[in-house]
């Protein structure tokens, strides 16, 4: 049905689906904050798991859909391109938070651990591309390892959040999770959770429309799958992370903002697991192109820079943003230019 649309209608459907994802994510951000308080799981963990997984759903639908249609490059680049784009969004959020460097103000052990976890998770598909091309029922052993590593890392992240073994140095700019008042916290989380689930379903359906429109862009305009995946569908399906991050910063929920990005990125590595299962022509990791691997390396590099910024906790930087934010902008901009020129 999508393929039969005229070019103006195709662009309209793509844009409308993107807007629906963004609008749904705005509502989901506030609900995630409420759910974090009423379930007492904390902002950093709620951002990393609840909000991160929900806002990533449209992206995972894109990757799985195109992988099932045999386009491994599109599926892979959509996943890793989204991780790079979402990390770049933190630099934009840092510009919005004018009091001090965002990474300084939102010091949180759980976010540090999840950044380390993300680096480990991204190294698995990178290693898989150089390993022997072996698959069981069309699924690479790397996907199984990646999935188990995600589950184990998520459990450890919860432990770090609940019983941290160290705390960051307090400064005037350090911001903490500010829960609702006690009366609000004692209210049932059932209502917000049901609405949140409904929004997740809407974002998933919108992701399917985006995936089909993206595939049509590849064939209709003779574009590379890597270009469309990394710079079009990945960015559009990552817009919820941009909106939720900026909204969280304006609300003062700084740990939720950073946790949402890092947690969303760790969840995005599962795109590769499900895409490998959907791709029926063998191992997904051995069907990708060099530009796809470049975006994977870019995501690794940007995550390392972000982790360094969280540890360094520079209070003031050029234009009152951290040096890590300037590096994130430079790395992402360079990757975009190289992809366009490739």
UniProtKB/TrEMBL annotation:
Family matches, as Gene3D superfamilies: NCX, central ion-binding region (1.20.1420.30)
Superkingdom to which the source organism belongs: Bacteria
Membrane topology: Multi-pass membrane protein
Chain segments annotated as transmembrane: 12-32, 44-68, 74-97, 109-128, 134-151, 193-211, 223-242, 254-274, 294-312, 321-341
Principal place of residence: membrane
Keyword Membrane: yes
Location of the Sodium/calcium exchanger membrane region domain: 10-151, 193-340
UniProt xrefs under InterPro entries: K/Na/Ca-exchanger, NaCa_Exmemb, NCX_ion-bd_dom_sf
Record's keyword terms, sorted: Membrane, Transmembrane, Transmembrane helix
Ranges of compositional bias, category Basic and acidic residues: 169-178
Subcellular location: Membrane
Residue span of region Disordered: 167-188
Keyword Membrane carried by entry: yes
Pfam families (alphabetical): Na_Ca_ex
The protein's name: Cation transporter
């Amino acid at each position: 049905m999508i393929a039969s649309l005229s070019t103006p209608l195709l662009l309209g459907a793509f844009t409308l689906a993107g807007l629906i994802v963004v609008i749904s994510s705005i509502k989901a951000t506030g609900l995630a904050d409420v759910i974090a308080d009423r379930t007492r799981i904390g902002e950093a963990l709620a951002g990393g798991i609840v909000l991160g997984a929900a806002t990533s759903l449209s992206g995972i639908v894109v990757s799985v859909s195109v992988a099932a249609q045999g386009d491994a490059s599109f599926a892979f680049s959509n996943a890793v391109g989204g991780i790079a784009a979402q990390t770049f969004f933190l630099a934009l959020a840092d510009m919005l938070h004018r009091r001090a460097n965002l990474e300084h103000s939102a010091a949180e052990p759980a976010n540090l651990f999840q950044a380390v976890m993300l680096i480990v998770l991204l190294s698995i598909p990178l290693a898989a591309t150089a390993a022997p091309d072996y698959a069981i029922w069309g699924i690479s052993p790397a996907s199984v390892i990646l999935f188990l590593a995600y589950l184990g890392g998520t459990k450890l992240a919860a432990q770090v959040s609940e019983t941290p073994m160290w705390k960051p140095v307090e400064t005037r700019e350090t911001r903490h999770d500010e829960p609702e008042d006690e009366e609000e916290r004692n209210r049932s989380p059932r209502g917000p959770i049901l609405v949140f689930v409904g929004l997740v379903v809407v974002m998933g359906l919108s992701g399917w429309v985006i995936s089909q429109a993206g595939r049509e862009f590849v064939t209709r305009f003779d574009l590379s799958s890597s270009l469309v995946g990394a710079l079009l569908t990945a960015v559009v399906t990552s817009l919820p992370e941009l909106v939720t991050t900026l909204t969280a910063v304006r609300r003062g929920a700084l740990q939720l903002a950073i946790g949402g990005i890092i947690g969303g990125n760790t969840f995005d590595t599962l795109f590769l697991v499900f895409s490998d299962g959907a791709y029926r022509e063998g191992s997904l990791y051995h069907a990708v192109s060099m530009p796809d691997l470049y975006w994977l390396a870019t995501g690794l590099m940007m995550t390392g820079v972000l982790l360094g910024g969280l540890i360094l906790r520079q209070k003031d930087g050029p234009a009152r943003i951290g040096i890590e934010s300037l590096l994130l902008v430079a790395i992402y901009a360079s990757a975009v230019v190289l992809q366009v020129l490739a």
